[in-house]
């Protein structure tokens, strides 16, 4: 509390709880929803992951059985591996491409609006539509492969969606195509926030443009990068609809992802206990990444 | 997931309430293809004509896997429909146990369902703790090998009459650039074909030991080793099918591009639509021509409990109508399935359907895997089969080992 306020209020010490009363009242519904839906739901899910619930939840304890079964299920292991590969590659490429495109657009080019619109448009499509479109484009019988073969290159082979080793690349192409535009726009906004004087100063000092970006601009854009990072990671963890629309997890089980495992187990296989165990593992994974990060942020603020 | 449950909880506050005598009864099902829609329209017509109630059609597109979660969500969420389709088996078992389904025992006893329903195992599937919760309406069997006469004429070979001949003839078809065994890429087709091979090649006793007694030793034994061996052969002969839907695969058989397809009796509709004649243009071998046994899967209707005596009366009327001889004939002729009554006459049935009726009459029948395994176990087998079927390096021995593990865990 500032000393100025204390002086104005006089000798009577204000009750902390009543400070900013109206905004606290306004926040109550959100707090209740947050506690009830998110915290309550999470606890409920974790509790039931230790039971043998099938179609309907019931509290019949089985200890860690569901987790033991989960980690001996091949489909789950494949799902985790896929998500890790997709996550890392997509995170790195989205951030790099997004920043690169934004930097190009920021060079005061002609038709900037047009390009920005073109790059951002895919984001307006849902993952389902994106998935369908790319499923057609990558179909060997009437997509890229057949077009290039039609041009005379009859030995050309490109059918990632039908090859278990390459299918993740097919997913990445579609995912990047859809998501990069948004990151580009966020980065562009960040670049526009950089003071013109900084650019003038580096020009006077004769620092090359690429070096300016890496040494000066990117460190200044840290908050923008954090925002983009959060957006991209949350999108990766809930990866589901793109897979359903493009491959339904195939060929075989080579493009399965955890969210799809959870959905299938909960609803079509009527095994709530197993599905809750899987979703709890997803939560734990996110927590493992998030907690050290949040801790670091907290420590930085304290210092 | 958490959001879904919150939604379910909130919808439970809304309940269905009607006051008029004539009831609008919503019926949900996943029959959306041409033949299926025509069949279910027969039920709707008879219900609207013979009672003062109205059939409100609640078709859910996208096959059972999509529709069942929606139906179950509505029932557990407190927004039940008047009646809903499930397959024969254990898909609605827990809903009935939890008291969410209408008890049909009194109606069944009054009308004597146990006297005319054949096979009675269909009623057993509906029965939980001695009470009856569903009305079986048709029988679909999986155990059919459909063969294209055209394909075998092209390579100058006689049409096979059993699985061994089929395997012998397969290399000749491959040399001629044909696919010996057409197989769609969707998981359920691989699982189904495996099930057919299991009954035909392992025999009735071994199949029952695994499916009914959940005996893991038999699942790991020599009878099932033969099944996995055959599945590996079928995998090699079905490679490059490059189609997804079952009816696309059936079309390859119709056009003579493929030698055969293992598919349930619903494939028959496709041959009929294409104008092909059974016995002349195509053959059907029940039980792969090895063991003439059919399994009795199919559909049943459940009536979610709604605390309103008038709705309940309408539900009972619909249940009674669905199993009546008139509805059974009208529905099953359009659907291409067999009726659940032993006492109705299907004169209009074609050759293959007649074969099925004969086998049914002799009692060479087994329950469907859906009746003996829970959806959870079925799902694990599905994952195994999908991987096995798509990876040529997956050995039959390894698949059999994992299969036995799943059977050991089955409940």
Quick structural overview:
The complex is a heterodimer of chains A (303) and B (411). Chain A has 303 residues and is mainly alpha-helical.
Please outline the helices and strands:
The complex is a heterodimer of chains A (303) and B (411).
Chain A: H1 3-9, H2 21-48, H3 65-70, H4 74-105, H5 112-120, H6 127-137, H7 144-150, H8 167-192, H9 196-205, H10 209-220, H11 222-237, H12 241-246, H13 258-268, H14 272-302
Helix pairs in contact in A: 2-14, 4-8, 4-11, 5-8, 6-8, 8-11, 13-14
Chain B: H1 2-11, E1 24-29, H2 34-50, E2 54-59, H3 63-76, E3 83-87, H4 93-97, H5 105-111, H6 113-116, H7 121-126, E4 127-128, E5 131-132, E6 134-136, E7 144-148, H8 149-154, H9 163-175, E8 179-182, H10 187-211, H11 216-219, H12 222-238, H13 246-254, E9 258-262, H14 268-273, E10 282-286, E11 294-296, E12 299-302, H15 309-322, H16 325-335, H17 351-362, E13 365-367, H18 369-372, H19 375-390, H20 396-409
Parallel strand pairs in B: 1-2, 1-3, 8-9, 11-13
Antiparallel strand pairs in B: 3-12, 4-5, 6-12, 7-9, 7-10
Helix pairs in contact in B: 2-16, 10-12, 10-19, 12-20, 19-20
The overall pLDDT of chain A, averaged over residues, is 87
Described by strand count, sense and barrel closure, the largest sheet of chain A is: none
Q: Report the portion of residues of chain B in β strands.
A: 5-15%
Distance between the termini of chain B: 26 Å
Shape of chain B: globular
Structural class of chain A: mainly alpha
Helix content of chain B: 40-55%
Strand content of chain A: under 5%
Terminal Cα separation of chain A, in Å?
19 Å
**Which descriptor suits the 3D outline of chain A?**
flat
- Radius of gyration of chain B, taken over Cα atoms and rounded to an integer in Å: 22 Å
* Main β-sheet, spatial strand arrangement of chain B: 2-1-3-12-6
Q: pLDDT average of chain B, as an integer?
A: 86
Low-confidence region ranges of chain B: 1-20
Instruction: Provide a count of the helices of chain A.
Output: 14
What percentage of residues of chain A falls in helices of 4 or more residues?
55-70%
Most extensive chain interface and residues per partner: A-B, 34 and 32 residues
Structural class of chain B: alpha/beta
